Amino acid sequence: MLTLQTKFRRLKKMPFRIAVKKVAGKAAEQAGFVYREYRIRRKPVSIPAELFRSFVPECAYLVNPADKDGYMKMLLTEGLDADIIRDADRICAHVFDLLGSGDTQLGPSLPWNEDFKSGYRWAKKFYKRIKIVDLDNAADVKVPWELSRFQHLFTLGKAYWLTGDEKYALEFRMQLEDWILQNPVGMSVNWTCAMDVAIRAANWIAAVPFFRESPSIPDAFWENFHASLYLHGRFIRGNLENTGEHTGNHYTADLAGLIALGLYFRGFHVPEDRMQGTGPAEWLAFGLSELEKEMFIQVHPDGTNYEASTSYHRLVAEMFLVTTIWCARNDLGFSAEYLRRLEAMFDFMLQIMKPDGLTPLIGDADDGRYLIVSQYGGWLRNDFRHLLAVAGEFFDRDDFRTAGLCAREDALWIAGGLKPFLQSAYSAMKSSAFPDGGYYVLRSPEVYCLIRCGELSFHGHGAHSHNDQLSFVLNIRGRDIAVDPGTYVYSADYRARNVFRSTAVHNTLQLGGMEQNDMEERNLFLLREQTNAACTRFADSHFAGRHEGYLAKGGIIHNRYITLEQASLIIIDTLEQTAAMTADVPSAAVSLMLAPEIHVSRDREKWLLHAEELTVTLEFEHAAKVELQEAWVSTSYGTRVPSKLLRVDIQSQILKTNIHFEANGGAIG
C-alpha cells in the first residue's frame, strides 16, 4: 500500500523516459477507469436471472444434505446445539463482534459499506475509483469487507437444521437480497478486493445446502442469487491479484473462490461465456492448475508459508485444505507432491503449538479465515486446532486428530465424518526446527520456547513481517511468560501499526534506538530485508543465531545463544564488532514483553514474575539498568490489553539473562 510520497520518490529515481512512460500509462489507466465507470452507470453489470431458472448444481457440496440426521445427532450428542442457536439468534438480531468492535447492534439494515467502528461510509461508485485507505482518518476498510464475507451464514444454516425455525431461512434470504441491492457489481467498496469477493462466494455456496429446500425462499430468490454468484466468478477471473511483486494469500483466495464457483456451476454455461472460451469450466481448470503451482511458490519444503506469519499460515493452509477436500469430493485431485507439502503445513502447525493448545501469533495477524463452521461467536484467534482436526481426518493422522480433539465439529462439517482412533502422544513432542520459514522450537516436559530467526516475508519484501529477528516466546508449564506483542491494527492507526511491528516491543536486542529493518512511517506493508538472519546451531536444548540488521548502520552483528536446562533458560546476547563499526558503539537494550496476566516484583537485583502457582526469577548479568515499562499486547485484530515490558540496558557488549523457574513450594524438574 504505497503512499503518494513513496510513489513520487520512486519516480524521481527512474530514468526520465521510463518515468514519463509510467506516468502516461497510469493516466491511460485512469482514463479507462472513467470510461468503464460511465458504462456501468449507463448499464449496470447484470445477467438475466431467467438463465438460472432450471439450474441445479451438479457438484457434491462440502456439507451433504443427505447426511443431515447424522450431523444433527453429533451436534446434540456433543452438546453444541445451545451455543449454535445462541450465535444464530445474535446474527438475526444483527449483533456482531468483528475485528475488535465488541458486541455491536448494527440496526435493522446491515451497514454493508460502512466501518461501523468509526462511522465512516464508503460511497457507491466504481470500485477502481474508491480510495480504500486514508491514513489520516481512523476508517478501516477491513470492517465492511469482514461483514460482507458472510462467514456467519453457516451458523444460521446449522440453527435452521437444528430447529426447523423459518426465521433463520428468512434472515438468510433478507441479508442476501439486501446485500445484492446495496452492492451493484463493481460499484461498492465490497468489490475493491477480489479476495473478499472469492471468500464471500465460497460462503454463499457453503450455506446453500442448509436452505435450498426452505418453503420461505421462493424460486425467484434462487434465480437472482445464482445470477449474482455467477457474476462473482466473472469478477474474480477479471481481477486476479497476481500482478504484484509476489503472489500470496489474496491470490490463493482468488483461486479457491474460482474453484468453488467452477464446481458449483459445473456443467452449466452462459452462452456468451461459452463462445468466448470462459465461464465455469475455464474457472475450474484455471483454478486447479494455478493452485497446484501456488503450493510450491508460497509453501516451503518444510511446510512453512513464505509470508512469515503464523496467522497467515493458518489462513492459507485452510484455503488449500478446504479446496483440496472439496475437489476430492468431486473426483478432482492434485499431485502427490502437492499433497505431501499440504500435509507438511499441518506438521508445522502441530509442532509450533504450545502445551496449552494455542499458537503464538508471529508476524501480522488479521483474524483471517475462509469458512467458519464452528464457534462463530467465540473462536480464539490463536487456536489452530480446528484445522488439525480436519487434517487428521483427511490425512488419517492420529496425532493431528489428538491435537484437534476439542474441535471435532470442524472435522464433521469439512472432512465429512469422524473416525475412531487411538489418542497419540503428541504432547511428548521434541524440539524442532523449520529453517525455511525461520522458526525454531526448544521443548522440555515443562518448557516451550519458540524463536524467530529467518527470512522476511515474500523472500525479503517483509509485507507481513515484524522486526522480530531472534525474538522468542516462552511458555512454562502451560503458562505464558514472554509473549509476542501481536499486531493490533493496520491502516486504521498507522502509528500503532508501526509500534506493534517495531524492534523495541519484541523480545530481542535493539541497538541505539535503530530498527532491525528500516520502516517507512506511512508504508505499512514493507520491510526490506536487512537482517539476513541465520541459525548457526540448533540442538534439542540449544539455539544459536545471528542477524545483520545493525551491520550497515553501526557495524554490529547481533548474536543470541539460548540454552534450555532442567529448570532454567539461559540467554546470552553479544554485540559482534566488525570493520564497519562506528567510532562509538551505540547503546543497546534488550526487551522482554510479559504476558498480561504476569505480576512483577523485585528482590534486590532479581526480578520475580508470578503466574499463580509458578514463580520465574530473572537475573541479568552485565546490565546497566533494568526498567519496568507499560506496554500493550494484542491477541486479535483491533483489540489490545495492557501489559508490562522489561527493558534491560546493556553495560558492555554482552548480556546474560538467567531465567529460572520453580513451582511455588519447590523447584520444577
Task: Write structural notes for this entry.
InterPro entries: Chondroitin_lyas, Hepar_II_III_C, Hepar_II_III_N. Keywords: Lyase, Periplasm, Signal. Residues 431-652 form the Heparinase II/III-like C-terminal domain. The protein is built from 20 helices and 22 strands. By secondary structure, the chain is an alpha+beta fold. It folds into four domains: 1-43; 65-239, Chondroitin AC/alginate lyase (Glycosyltransferase); 247-419, Glycosyltransferase (Alpha/alpha barrel); 430-667, Beta-galactosidase, Chain A, domain 5, CATH 2.70.98.70. Strands 11, 12, 13, 14, 16, 17, 18, 21 and 22 form a nine-stranded antiparallel sheet that branches. It has a five-stranded antiparallel sheet with strand order 5-6-7-8-9, with no helix packed on it. Strands 10-15-20-19 form a four-stranded antiparallel sheet, with no helix packed on it. Strand 19 and strand 20 form a beta hairpin. The longest helix is centred in the N-terminal third of the chain and has 27 residues, at 16-42. The chain is globular, with a radius of gyration of 26 Å. It starts with a helix and ends with a strand.
Properties at a glance:
alpha+beta; 20 helices; Glycosyltransferase; 22 strands; 9-stranded antiparallel β-sheet; 4 domains; 5-stranded antiparallel β-sheet; periplasm; Chondroitin_lyas; Hepar_II_III_N; 669 residues
What overall geometry do the principal axes of the alpha carbons give? globular
Q: Strand pairing plus helix content: what structural class?
A: alpha+beta
Spans of at least 5 consecutive residues whose pLDDT stays below 50 are none
Count of helix runs:
20
